[in-house]
Amino acid sequence: xxxxxxxxxLVVLEGLDRSGKSSQCSRLxxxxxxxxISAELWRFPDxxxxxxxxxxxxxxxxxxxxxxxxxLLFSANRWEKRSLMETKLKTGKTLIVxxxxxxxxxxxxxxGLDIEWCKAPEIGLLAPDVxxxxxxxxxxxxxxxxxxxxxxxxxxxxxxxxxxxSVLHDVSWKVVDGCQPMEDVEKQLQEVVLDCVxxxxxxxxxxxxxx
Length: 211
Ligand code: Z5A
Ligand code: MG
Description:
The protein has a single domain (10-208), classed as 3-Layer(aba) Sandwich (Rossmann fold), CATH 3.40.50. It is built from nine helices and seven strands; from the N terminus they run βαβαααβααββααβαβ. It has helices at residues 21-34, 50-59, 67-79, 82-90, 101-110, 115-119, 138-143, 155-166, 182-201; strands spanning 10-15, 39-43, 94-98, 126-127, 130-135, 173-177, 207-208. It has a five-stranded parallel sheet, sandwiched between helices. α2 (50-59) runs antiparallel to α3 (67-79), α3 (67-79) packs antiparallel against α5 and α5 crosses α8 (155-166). The longest helix has 20 residues, at 182-201.
């Protein structure tokens, strides 16, 4: 018929370092598959590409790059995955994405770069159907397992990132208290995401950033 096959949902998890994004993303994918919903786990940066390897070297402090340059590389890393992302969604896959453009803007603007400049290269990327922000204070996050040695893993900087995130909130955001026990966070996420998958199946249109 003329009706398009139902599409998957684009779900993004955001939050400070140690807020629990990666833990929750993998739990969510298992849950969805258990419900018979075809889902895949994605993450940014995607360190497997050439661009991703440059980003990885920067994060581990083995290379130095100008703030604007690394910002554009993070963005390029999303652009190089855009068409695959669209294909997957249109063939019915739900994508659970660990960090996206909001991380890009929040981290770079926390360094002092102009926020509109930071948003510009993200224009035209696919807009998430829902962004779940795992809310945790920088202090509480720092208590979790301690930070590793990567570039941004310092309390003072994480405070600035929290401020930057707070101006990026829009209607697609659902804020979940990330300080709750993992199982409670998980339950809330499941509800939000099932609703979102249903909406997308009913024909909600894919949009582009920033909408
Ligand atoms: N970055 C950027 O600048 N620009 C961009 O465009 C993008 C990213 C996309 C690498 O990210 C860096 O790149 C990141 C932002 C920047 N720098 N910083 N900061 P990454 O995603 O690779 O970072 P990561 O190493 O995966 O860490 P993470 O994402 O910050 O952590 P998380 O995924 O949010 O948390 P987790 O690994 O699930 O959990 C952390 C610990 O807390 C772990 O021991 C868990 O067992 C524990 N945990 C989790 N949930 C709970 C609850 N509910 N209670 C108690 N304990 C918990
Ligand atoms: Mg993570």
